[in-house]
Write a structure and sequence with these properties.
Strand content: 5-15%
Structural class: alpha/beta
Number of strands: 12
Distance between the termini: 38 Å
Strand order of the largest sheet: 1-2-3-4-5
Order of helices and strands: HEHEHEEEHEEHEHEHHEHEEHHH
Radius of gyration: 21 Å
């Protein structure tokens, strides 16, 4: 009972804080602290679905809290969004709240019979809500066409001063527990210098000292980036892989059943790490580093699908239409 009362008090505080905030058009419940709220507001306002400045026209709930809080009737159209995997971790939300909300968004495949759309977090990190390419404090928000062009951009390999980067806080969540540590040990034993610049097995302060905590600037100086997901699940692809591709750092990837965003990416230019046979990935890394011919062939293939821009635009347009439908 004490916990419930405490959570209700916290909920009231959240609502009061948001009611006069800069993103007050949408009420966010069970949400990350400030994480990507503005994207939804800007997207729906720019598409004339929400009115700027009008309070709480829509509620978006997520997984960072108990489910009964997300299910409270708040007298508004309610959407569900998750940036987290729900197959291994936030399993209470694995149904995407399909019976409690009007629309569900996340990594799972589209299923309009369940009012479920595929709108993963990497799209919010990289795509401009107004489809106009703009510089952010750290990195860019791209138009759809510019996003594809940025992935396909040719990057120099040899001039990059650092071998590899690993930027993560932990290695003990999801069904990928231990994989990052295994990769770190494998590559360091082979003679590669891995800049572990996050909380997990931190061995450098270069990210703070030289790059002002801007990990994308660091990746632009690294030949490879170890970008593993916490969980290997169908469709679960986060922004980590796209960080590498956009910065020209060759991604060493684990997750998404080795088929990350298959309607957007071809799989070319991505090194798949197999925890049961890590030396296979290591062997390819050696070939990339030691053979110009092999490296040029590896990096020269098209990384995005021929209709990638259309596939992305279709997802965004469907999201726009479905929100408009449930609201009006």
């Amino acid at each position: 009972m004490k916990r419930t009362i405490k959570e209700l008090i916290q909920l009231v505080r959240i609502i009061l804080k948001q009611r006069n905030g800069i993103n007050k058009e949408i009420l966010y419940i069970n949400w990350w602290t400030g994480e990507k709220r503005h994207w939804f507001n800007d997207f729906l306002i720019s598409n004339k679905i929400l009115k700027p400045g009008k309070r709480f026209q829509l509620v978006i709930v997520s997984v960072m809290g108990r489910r009964w809080i997300a299910e409270l009737p708040l007298g508004r159209v309610k959407l569900f969004f998750t940036a987290e995997d729900t197959t291994d971790r936030y399993i209470d939300y694995d149904d995407y709240m399909e019976h409690s909300t009007e629309l569900s968004l996340g990594f799972k495949s589209q299923d309009l019979t369940k009012n479920r759309l595929n709108l993963p977090l990497w799209m919010l990190y990289n795509l401009s809500p107004t489809n106009e390419t703009k510089k952010q404090d750290k990195g860019w928000l791209y138009s759809v066409d510019d996003f594809i062009d940025a992935i396909e951009k040719k990057h120099d390999f040899e001039s990059r001063p650092y071998d590899m980067a690993l930027i993560c806080r932990h290695d003990n969540r999801g069904n990928g527990k231990g994989n990052r540590g295994l990769a770190l040990d494998t590559f360091e034993k082979a003679g590669f210098k891995v800049l572990s610049a996050g909380g997990f097995r931190k061995n450098t302060t270069i990210l703070e000292d030289e790059f002002n905590d801007d990990h994308l600037r660091l990746l632009q100086k690294c030949k490879f980036y170890i970008c593993f997901e916490n969980t290997d699940a169908p469709g679960y692809t986060t922004e980590k892989l796209f960080d590498a591709l956009l910065c020209g750092s060759i991604p060493i990837y684990w997750g998404a059943q080795n088929k990350p965003e298959k309607d957007v990416l071809t799989g070319n230019g991505i090194l798949v790490f197999d925890p049961t046979n890590p030396t296979r990935c290591l062997s390819i890394i050696h070939q990339i580093c030691n053979s110009v011919t092999f490296r040029e062939e590896f990096l020269g293939k098209q990384k995005t699908q021929p209709k990638a821009a259309i596939a992305i635009s279709n997802r965004l347009n469907l999201f726009k239409r479905e929100v408009e439908r449930v609201l009006h």
